[in-house]
Amino acid sequence: MKRIYKYLALSSVSVFAMLAACLYINNYDINQPQDDGTMQPRIKVGQTATFTLNGNFASIQDSETDTRFVVAVLAPRAWDMANKTTVSFHGGSMYDPLEEQSMSIIPSTASPSQFPGYTWPEALMQKYGIGNNKYNDMEWVAWWADTPCPYTNGSKSTYTVTIKSNVGDDNLIAYLGFFVGHSARGMQDDLSTNHYDQSFPAETFTVYGGPGETIDYTKTRFNMIEPMRSLQDDLITFTFAGETNVNDLINCNEIYFEATAYTVEGHSYPVTERSDKTLMKRPDTFTHDYSIMIWPAGFFSIPEGETIDYIEYSFKGYDQDGSEVVVDKAYDMKVNGDTPASDRIPFTYNMVCGVN
Amino acid sequence: MKYKLKACVLAGLVGLMAASCDSYKDSDNPDKIVEADKDLSGVWQLTEVKRNGIDISEHYDFGRFKLHLDKNGRYMLENRLPFPVTEDGAWQIDDPAHPFMITFTEDDVTGDPTKVEISFPNVHGERQLGIKHSPGCGSNTYQYVFVKTN
Q: How many of the other CB atoms lie within 10 Å of CB of A75?
């Protein structure tokens, strides 16, 4: 009989646990100090941005095992967060509230519960995708506390997470994303219990001041490039994504790639011919994507000993009257509501390996 | 009783292992298997290319690129593409029976020869020559698969 009471008592605790909140992000701060003394969600290339999350934690049962506090960030792949970002926190009832706790990348062998076989970044990508971004060169990276700890029934506390991330060399605009949780419950959804929480800032974060064009992750783009980072001895695919926005180029019979390579040595090598060499191919008729793969050193006939610094390019065709139709950076700006400084501004691609 | 039985089985196993160790000698090779030397010489043509694990064979005219490995130890690149070496020169493999590494020594290039790991699988009765390399950014990897032209 006693056993039954014990069982009932335990069940009621677990039901209560399912109905009570555990972990919340209360606010985030992605603003960085500016030269004019203000705080803005923007930073110069190469610098280290500091993001903070404040939240609270309340436990209504004892933990079965020690658990690790988990923090994950969604940011452009160009930031190379796994190598260039550190995450720490203070707070949480089991720790000294003043002592900063270190965190490390979660090993790929660990899966969040509910996502067996997935790494934490894979599970986060599955659950949240790339947030409000449109351009799919973002990644989730997840860290957990170096020191696991238990939690006890009734413990309540606040926490502050500090994320320091070098923002790399690319000018960009993107929406960031944040996640907190703990290793014991992963992304477990109970009726009204928050074993984890997420926050997707409504404002964009900007990295500025570097050479080359700005990659706006929040907009679909006419120009897509794979791989994002490459040198002149890579094979690079340039794609004109014709369905991105209104344009006349998709009505042309043939679309060509026109480009100029600028070398570190100060020379330029234009390729303006309309031939098989520059004809962009449409892999299927379901979409209006047109692609060309080039080996830059060969495509631009770069002499031995010279190194391409950057490539300027645009997509061109002729309409039925024989008039030239162009989609370039200037056109892209116009359809996005911006005012370009000139009617013809090519897209720019910098030949760098960057932070990797 | 159980323990005794286990002990017996264990003793038997150890005895068997000892016996099998004893009976094997390096000099005894009953089948007299000798690994034949592999002939890598010939004209190799690109048939498959993967960039960062994704097949891009159809996206470029890769078939034009040919790697000539001459019997006399010279190599020549025809219609060159990104490759571990840029100049023609001399080639050598580390082990004719089990080729694992090919060494290219470029003409007129000072510095160490370029060593490239290769695979040499037999696919549908035909030898293929596989090379994995990163001629541009280190973060980009290319897998080339060559077949011999007739």
A: 29
Nearest residue in chain A measured CA to CA from B61 = A293
What does the pLDDT profile of chain B (150 residues) look like in tens digits? Answer: 444 444 434 443 333 333 333 333 444 555 556 677 888 999 999 999 988 777 899 999 999 999 999 999 999 999 999 999 989 999 999 988 888 999 999 998 888 999 999 999 888 889 999 999 999 988 788 999 999 997
Out of 3.30.750, 2.30.29, 1.10.10, 2.60.40, which CATH number does the structure's domain A18-208 have? Answer: 2.60.40
Residue spans of the domains in chain B: they are: 42-148
Task: Give A 222-241 residues with CB within 8 A of chain B.
Answer: 226-227, 229-235, 237
Selecting from A226, A304, A353 the residue whose C-beta is nearest the C-beta of B138 gives: A353
CB contact under 8 A, A235 and B142: yes
Residue A146 contacts residue A70 (beta carbons within 8 Å): no
Buried b (16+ CB within 10 A) or exposed e, A79-92: bbbeebbebbbbbb
Mutate to test the interface with B, among A234, A304, A307, A311 (most CBs of B within 10 A): A234
Residue listed under structure tokens 């080039």? A294
**Chain A, 113-172: which have a CB under 8 Å from a chain B CB?**
none
Check A230 against B136: CB less than 8 A apart. yes
* Distance from the Cα of residue A92 to its chain's centroid: 29
Cβ neighbours around B72 below 10 Å, total? 6
A66/B contact by beta carbon, under 8 A = no
The fold for domain A220-350 equals: Immunoglobulin-like (2.60.40)
Outline which parts of chain A fall under CATH 2.60.40.
Answer: 18-208, 220-350
CATH topology of domain B42-148: Lipocalin (2.40.128)
The first and second tokens of residue A28, run together, are 């985030």
What ipTM, to 2 d.p.?
0.75
